[in-house]
Design goal:
Helix content is about 30%, strand content about 20%. It has a seven-stranded mixed β-barrel. The protein has a five-stranded parallel β-sheet with strand order 6-5-4-9-10, sandwiched between helices. Strands 1-2-8-7 form a four-stranded mixed β-sheet, sandwiched between helices. Helix 26 packs across helix 27 (about 835-845).
Length: about 850
């Protein structure tokens, strides 16, 4: 059991001590802060998610880190939501996965050394709130299609990551309040749902809502169970672990009303892809989304978790489903004790946080309300390069063929018309096959998004059964895989009798982890890679994941589509995405869609160092090296990949290592030298200096084309600080902590973008990198910026949050930008050169 470590505010110093009362009058030792005793009518008009923030502020109020004025700001949410009001939030716990957990433990160890050198007590560097680290990002699909694939992949995982795992084991013993969930347990978010979630904490004599932040963007999946949580940067999570509250701008809350009944052929995947596109259009970046309406009561916790999981893809901070009776039923099904279920229900009802979705009288006030009629949802996929680009399945063939010839971009590959019908023959396993544009070469049932949902997983199994009975198969060169979110999935697939059919189609269990969804898809067969390269083909991957940015899934699949597990099976059998399932047979005389009865009612099966800026007024000349002036999204997976290490030379790897031993960028995050070299090393990086995809840039002093790292190293040797020019949604995707740490190590002092992904902007601040944002209407193109100018950023004193400052060019022009330090706390971090420097100095002083 965890040691809480932090001092409870309810020690007489808390000004809200008077609202404390026992949950059970017969047991005065178990108490709670009864928010209804505030006697404030505003409370029950607050969105349920904001009530969680309020409870945390009330319980932790000490007039130092959390003040009574903060409580009033949250209570007055209806007015303060649009006033950029900053409030502190102390989540109950932190969750990490190993890609971000290893750097966190490395940082903690390094901070102990730094504090010791400064004369402080290194033992103070220790988590003071519970932290769980789930190892799920290391395993790769090296072996597939064989019954021993799981064991072989796990053996290789331990062989590759022995030092990492030993280090994490040391960390679990060296630091208090840190628990390590070992490899093979499952995907972090499904483990969180099934095992780690408390829903209501019962600790040190107090009941309070479970809440968390996590170092994985899809931490929001837990929102589906009614636990408020969201992803933060690894650097920010470390501060929370050290007892710092999160400083956040009180968010607007979009109420998302679900009503109507889904068609029997619709899956939760279809619903979430529809919601993702809709909310992207609405615009919910930096906001909470809270689901309500009678349609919610039709969704299982697995369905809700699927929708909450893809919250980062539609841009919101959190996607909250308040607890209801279905939530309690799920907790019972997953083995929570009856005593816990009783106090969870009693506590949430006592503080008006228990929901009846069919009772409109409980509907709170929202910033705005948007609606979705579930009956309007149609079967769909998303792609080929972004999760928000939804495509009805009936339009997939037409959409892909349009993308082939369209201009290079999110919906274009710019393939010449005369090459659209190109085919490349190749031999595999003694037989000849043909690849063409749109050929499926990866089909993966993977990811926390869908493998946690029994309806779509059993649906895929039933589809496989029907396919085998009809004599269908998947071509042997297609890399098929099944990586469930936990062992529970394998259990019910076997017990239901469908696992054998999945195996016969090539969908053997290959591991329990994120795998293909995070780019750990492993190598493709050499003949397939050669055919793709020879024909410069736009090959396809189809996966039941949540991310499909180009270069993420696999370097040789330029088109990647997110789909439900049944559709993954269907496209694997078809062997191409250039098929219209409504008009073309998947096999001779075979129908395509075969609905069947199973839970929930709406689901179906488709058939077939520390550098510090001065605090005094200062001017910094920022010289550009790798400038991105594209008016598009540059995702953090491109800034700092988590998948394949593509080459030996750029990373300085030993000649004695084989490519299989390179491991992935994500698993190398404890090695700053490799990660610095891997920054902007993604082969799908599009640099406008070069006007092509390559992990390279122009070294301006000589005009040479160099790898980004090599150019940055030359600039640093010359003492020239660097600037990145970028487009919209800069930093979307994963790998975010190192997507900020890597640029920092390359000498990048600022980024100028049209907009930022929320967590990535926070991580830049955490590393002391200045996030600048164009003013509305301005872009690199509209200002005529080429990236070859010399940039001087004038930093006035005193700085204030979201201040507008001048940027001067060596051409004589000046334009204004906004500094995206959104809170006073972020400015404090900046003045210290980053959050870790701030924490080290604070701990040393204490």
């Amino acid at each position: 059991m965890f040691e809480q470590g932090r001092r409870m505010s309810a020690t007489g110093k808390n000004p809200f001590q008077h609202i404390v009362e026992p949950l059970d009058p017969k047991n005065s030792n178990q108490q709670f802060f009864n928010l209804l005793n505030l006697g404030d009518p505003r409370y029950e008009r607050l969105p349920f998610s904001i009530r969680v923030l309020l409870e945390s502020a009330v319980r932790n109020c000490d007039e130092f880190l959390v003040k009574q004025s903060d409580v009033e700001s949250i209570l007055n949410w209806k007015q303060t939501q649009t006033q950029t009001v900053e409030v502190p939030f102390r989540p109950a716990r932190v969750i990490l996965q190993d890609f971000t957990g290893v750097p966190a433990v490395v940082d903690f160890a390094a901070m102990r050394d730094a504090v010791k050198k400064l004369g402080g007590d290194p033992e103070k560097i220790n988590p003071v709130c519970p932290a769980d680290l789930v190892i799920d990002h290391s395993i790769q699909v090296d072996f597939n299609r064989k019954s021993d694939s799981l064991q072989k992949n796990q053996d290789l995982e331990f062989e590759r990551n022995k030092e990492r795992f030993q280090f994490l084991k040391w960390g679990s013993k060296a630091f208090k309040n840190m628990r390590i969930i070992p490899p093979g347990s499952g995907i972090v978010h499904q483990v969180n749902l099934e095992y780690l979630a408390r829903v209501v904490f019962n600790y040190n004599g107090f009941f309070y809502p479970d809440s968390l932040v996590g170092t994985d963007s899809h931490t929001t999946m837990i929102d589906g169970l009614g636990v408020l949580g969201w992803g933060v940067g690894g650097i920010e999570a470390e501060a929370v672990m050290l007892g710092q509250p999160i400083s956040m701008v009180l968010p607007e809350v979009v109420g998302y009303k679900l009503h109507g009944t889904p068609d029997k052929l619709i899956t939760s995947t279809d619903i979430v892809l529809t919601v993702t596109k809709h909310l992207r259009q609405v615009g919910v970046v930096g906001k909470f989304v809270e689901f309500f309406g009678p349609g919610v009561s039709q969704l299982s916790i697995a369905d809700r978790a699927t929708i909450a999981n893809m919250c980062p893809e539609y841009g919101a901070t959190a996607a909250f489903f308040p607890v209801d009776n279905i939530s309690i039923q799920y907790l019972e099904q997953t083995g929570r004790e009856r005593e816990k279920l009783d106090y969870i229900t009693k506590y949430l009802k006592a503080v008006a946080m228990f929901r009846d979705y069919n009772d409109a009288a409980q509907d709170p006030d929202y910033t705005q309300v948007v609606e979705l009629d579930l009956s309007s949802v149609v079967p769909c996929c998303s792609g080929p390069k972004r999760p928000q680009d939804r495509i009805p399945v009936s339009d997939m063939k037409k959409d892909f063929e349009t993308c082939l010839g369209a201009k290079q971009g999110f919906k274009g590959f710019q393939v010449a018309p005369e090459r659209h019908a190109a085919v490349v023959p190749f031999h595999f396993g003694g037989k000849e096959y043909i690849l063409s544009h749109g050929s499926v070469v990866i089909a993966a049932i993977t990811s926390c998004t869908n493998t946690s949902n029994p309806s779509v997983m059993l649906g895929a199994g039933l589809l496989a059964k029907k396919a085998i009975e009809c004599g269908l198969s998947v071509k042997p060169y297609i890399k098929t895989s099944l990586s469930p979110g936990s062992g529970v999935v394998t259990y019910y697939l076997k017990e239901s009798g469908v696992m054998d059919y999945l195996s016969q189609l090539g969908f053997e269990v290959v591991g329990y982890g994120c795998m293909t969804c995070i780019g750990n898809s492993g190598p493709l067969p050499d003949p397939v890679v050669e055919a793709i390269t020879q024909g410069d083909l736009v090959a396809a991957g189809v996966l039941s994941g949540n991310r499909n940015f180009e270069g993420r899934v696999h370097p040789n699949t330029r088109a990647n589509y997110l789909a439900s597990p049944p559709l993954v099976i269907a496209y694997a059998i078809a062997g191409t995405v250039r098929i219209d399932f409504e008009k073309e047979p998947i096999g001779e005389n075979l129908s395509i869609i075969c609905p069947h009865p199973h839970f929930p009612a709406h689901s179906s099966v488709y058939f077939v160092g520390v550098t510090k800026f001065h605090t005094s007024p200062s001017v910094y000349a920022l010289y550009d090296t790798h400038v991105h002036t594209l008016i598009i999204m540059i995702c953090s997976d491109v800034i700092q990949s988590s998948g394949f290490i593509f080459s030996r030379s750029s990373l300085g790897l030993s000649d004695s290592l084989t490519p299989r031993e390179f491991n992935s960028y994500g698993s190398r995050r404890g090695n700053d030298a490799i990660m610095a070299r891997g920054t902007f090393a993604n082969i799908r990086l599009f640099n406008k200096f070069l006007n092509k995809q390559a992990p390279q840039t122009v070294y301006l002093p000589t005009g040479e084309t160099l790898d980004v790292f090599d150019a940055a190293e030359r600039y640093q040797q010359s003492g020239i600080p660097l600037l990145v020019l970028a487009g919209k949604e800069y930093g979307s995707g994963s790998s975010r902590d190192w997507a900020a740490k890597g640029p920092f190590l390359l000498g990048i002092k600022a980024v100028l973008a049209e907009s930022y992904e929320r967590i990535h902007r926070s991580n830049l601040v955490g590393m002391g990198v200045i996030p600048l944002e164009y003013l509305p209407g301005d872009t690199a193109d509209s200002l005529g910026l080429t990236g070859r100018e010399r940039y001087t950023l004038v930093i006035p004193e005193p700085l204030t949050p979201r201040m507008v400052v001048d940027v001067k060019l060596d051409t004589g022009r000046t334009f204004k930008v906004r500094m995206r330090f959104d809170t006073d706390v972020e400015l404090t971090y900046f003045h210290h050169g980053g959050i870790l420097n701030y924490m080290i100095r604070k701990m040393s002083q204490n």
